[in-house]
Amino acid sequence: MSEQPSEIKLHQKSRLLEIAFSDGACFRLPYEFLRVYSPSADVSGHGPGQEVLQVGKKNVGVTGVVPAGSYAMQINFDDGHDTGLYSWEYLYKLGKNQVLMWQHYLDRLEVAGGSRELLR
Question: What is the value of pTM for the model shown?
Fold first, then answer.
Protein backbone atom coordinates (compact mmCIF):
# COMPACT_ATOMS: atom_id res chain seq x y z
CA MET A 1 0.00 0.00 0.00
CA SER A 2 1.37 3.39 -0.89
CA GLU A 3 -1.16 5.57 0.94
CA GLN A 4 0.40 7.66 3.67
CA PRO A 5 -1.47 9.63 6.30
CA SER A 6 -1.69 13.31 5.48
CA GLU A 7 -3.23 14.23 8.83
CA ILE A 8 -3.84 12.53 12.19
CA LYS A 9 -5.94 14.13 14.92
CA LEU A 10 -6.98 12.86 18.33
CA HIS A 11 -10.38 14.07 19.48
CA GLN A 12 -10.28 13.41 23.22
CA LYS A 13 -13.84 14.53 24.01
CA SER A 14 -15.47 12.32 21.39
CA ARG A 15 -12.77 9.61 21.77
CA LEU A 16 -12.01 9.46 18.06
CA LEU A 17 -8.85 9.22 16.02
CA GLU A 18 -9.31 11.03 12.73
CA ILE A 19 -6.90 10.00 10.00
CA ALA A 20 -6.75 11.33 6.46
CA PHE A 21 -4.76 9.57 3.74
CA SER A 22 -2.99 10.79 0.62
CA ASP A 23 -5.67 9.27 -1.63
CA GLY A 24 -8.35 11.48 -0.04
CA ALA A 25 -9.81 8.80 2.25
CA CYS A 26 -10.59 10.02 5.75
CA PHE A 27 -11.68 7.85 8.67
CA ARG A 28 -12.93 8.58 12.18
CA LEU A 29 -12.02 5.60 14.31
CA PRO A 30 -13.39 5.35 17.88
CA TYR A 31 -10.77 4.62 20.53
CA GLU A 32 -12.79 1.59 21.65
CA PHE A 33 -12.71 0.18 18.10
CA LEU A 34 -8.94 0.72 17.88
CA ARG A 35 -8.44 -0.92 21.27
CA VAL A 36 -10.54 -4.03 20.60
CA TYR A 37 -8.83 -4.49 17.22
CA SER A 38 -5.31 -3.82 18.46
CA PRO A 39 -2.75 -5.59 16.28
CA SER A 40 -0.77 -6.66 19.37
CA ALA A 41 -0.22 -10.36 20.01
CA ASP A 42 -2.07 -10.22 23.35
CA VAL A 43 -5.23 -9.12 21.48
CA SER A 44 -4.94 -10.59 17.99
CA GLY A 45 -3.09 -13.73 19.08
CA HIS A 46 -0.31 -15.41 17.16
CA GLY A 47 -2.52 -16.71 14.35
CA PRO A 48 -6.09 -17.09 13.09
CA GLY A 49 -8.53 -18.21 15.77
CA GLN A 50 -6.31 -17.06 18.64
CA GLU A 51 -7.89 -13.63 19.04
CA VAL A 52 -8.65 -12.59 22.61
CA LEU A 53 -12.07 -10.95 22.95
CA GLN A 54 -11.70 -7.55 24.60
CA VAL A 55 -14.40 -6.55 27.08
CA GLY A 56 -15.05 -3.42 29.11
CA LYS A 57 -13.39 -1.03 26.65
CA LYS A 58 -16.31 1.32 25.94
CA ASN A 59 -14.75 4.32 27.67
CA VAL A 60 -11.09 3.62 26.96
CA GLY A 61 -9.01 6.71 26.32
CA VAL A 62 -5.81 7.42 24.44
CA THR A 63 -2.93 8.97 26.37
CA GLY A 64 -0.59 9.35 23.43
CA VAL A 65 0.54 8.35 19.98
CA VAL A 66 4.17 7.56 19.15
CA PRO A 67 5.50 7.38 15.57
CA ALA A 68 7.14 4.08 14.59
CA GLY A 69 9.37 4.82 11.65
CA SER A 70 7.56 5.99 8.54
CA TYR A 71 5.11 3.08 8.41
CA ALA A 72 3.17 2.97 11.69
CA MET A 73 2.33 4.42 15.06
CA GLN A 74 1.94 3.05 18.54
CA ILE A 75 -1.22 4.05 20.38
CA ASN A 76 -1.03 4.25 24.16
CA PHE A 77 -4.36 3.59 25.86
CA ASP A 78 -5.31 4.66 29.38
CA ASP A 79 -5.94 1.04 30.41
CA GLY A 80 -2.19 0.44 30.10
CA HIS A 81 -2.26 -1.22 26.68
CA ASP A 82 0.56 0.09 24.49
CA THR A 83 2.01 -2.85 22.58
CA GLY A 84 0.22 -2.63 19.24
CA LEU A 85 1.91 -1.09 16.22
CA TYR A 86 -0.79 0.28 13.93
CA SER A 87 0.66 0.35 10.42
CA TRP A 88 -0.79 2.81 7.95
CA GLU A 89 -2.05 -0.17 5.96
CA TYR A 90 -3.79 -1.62 9.03
CA LEU A 91 -5.40 1.72 9.93
CA TYR A 92 -6.63 2.06 6.34
CA LYS A 93 -8.09 -1.46 6.54
CA LEU A 94 -9.81 -0.61 9.84
CA GLY A 95 -11.31 2.50 8.27
CA LYS A 96 -12.53 0.75 5.12
CA ASN A 97 -14.02 -2.18 7.04
CA GLN A 98 -15.14 -0.41 10.20
CA VAL A 99 -18.87 -1.16 9.94
CA LEU A 100 -18.45 -4.90 9.33
CA MET A 101 -15.64 -5.30 11.86
CA TRP A 102 -17.61 -3.46 14.55
CA GLN A 103 -20.66 -5.66 13.99
CA HIS A 104 -18.46 -8.76 14.11
CA TYR A 105 -17.07 -7.57 17.45
CA LEU A 106 -20.57 -6.90 18.86
CA ASP A 107 -21.72 -10.35 17.71
CA ARG A 108 -18.73 -12.05 19.35
CA LEU A 109 -19.33 -10.06 22.53
CA GLU A 110 -22.98 -11.12 22.64
CA VAL A 111 -22.20 -14.80 22.09
CA ALA A 112 -19.59 -14.69 24.86
CA GLY A 113 -21.94 -12.87 27.24
CA GLY A 114 -19.41 -10.04 27.49
CA SER A 115 -19.99 -6.34 27.94
CA ARG A 116 -18.54 -3.17 26.49
CA GLU A 117 -18.91 -1.63 29.95
CA LEU A 118 -16.11 -1.90 32.49
CA LEU A 119 -17.40 -4.11 35.28
CA ARG A 120 -15.97 -3.31 38.69
Answer: 0.94
